[in-house]
Structure formats: C-alpha cells, structure tokens
Amino acid sequence: MENDDLTKAVAITLMSVGIAIIIATAFKAMPNFDFRIYLEVNNGNRNTR
Fold it and tell me: What is residue 26's predicted lDDT score, i.e. its pLDDT?
C-alpha cells in the first residue's frame, strides 16, 4: 500500500511539472501576448462601463 501511495504522489508531481512546462512553453511561443496587459485592458473595459 505504501508503494502505491508513493507512486501516486510521484505521478501527480510529474504531471504538475509537465503541465507547468507546457504552460511556460506556450507563453514563450506567444511573445506578443502579455497577460498583464490583457488584465489591464479587461479592467479598463469594466471601469468605463
């Protein structure tokens, strides 16, 4: 049972790291997209309305 729990923990950790790498790669692939600017634009639109 302990081995199963350890295996699950390692698998979850590897999945989390893999997802983080995928997200980082996606942002590097889109240098024109800046998330902070995106948030500022959305907040500005809400305030003007």
Answer: 80
Which two tokens mark 42?
Answer: 């959305």
The token duo for 10 is 């390692």
Q: Which runs of consecutive H residues, i.e. helices, occur in 1-49?
A: 2-29, 35-48
For residue 39 the two structure tokens come to 């948030």
User: What is this structure's pTM?
Assistant: 0.46
Instruction: Quote the domain boundaries for residue 7.
Output: 2-48
CA angle 15, 20, 24 (to 5 degrees): 150
Distance CA 1, CA 25 (A): 36
State how many domains the chain has: 1
Q: What angle do CA 26, 22, 44 make, to 5 degrees?
A: 45
